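This protein record is not my work; I was only asked to verify it. The record follows directly below this note.
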Amino acid sequence: RLARFSCSVILIKNGWVVQSTSFKTYKNIGHPIPTIKRLSDFGSDEIIILDIDASINNCLINTDLIKFLSKNVSIPLTIGGGVNSLQSAEVYFKNGADKISINSLFLDAQYSIINSISEEYGSQSIVLSLDFIQIEDRNYYLYDYRKKEKSN
């Protein structure tokens, strides 16, 4: 019998947990700390926290949030948003992230940076997160949320 694995993805925008509809509208659904603690208590095996503003604003996720969660939640944390160098990845790992999620580096073909992070922290510490959007023709396209455009 196969074991079940439950991974929860949390989107953060302006410091709040949000629900997104087609990358156009965002509904605030709460503060990150109680939301993530509740998911941990309900049996999630891993939590992925993605700050959807960090890359656009060229900043990192609040490291106090990462530190608090890594000390108070007993499941692995994957952190994404604003990773644009080996040094920014290092900030997340030093503050308690078990893995980092990469999107913009891949879309921008910054493979040397991804390789540097992989060499320093191991390939198991990197998750590639890509966004897809379904258009009226019912096909799915890779979507760059920063440029608000799809690609083939």
Observations:
- Residues 42 and 66 are 20 Å apart (CA to CA).
- Helices lie at 32-41, 63-72, 86-94, 104-107, 111-121.
- The first strand starts at residue 7 and ends at 13.
- The mean pLDDT is 87.
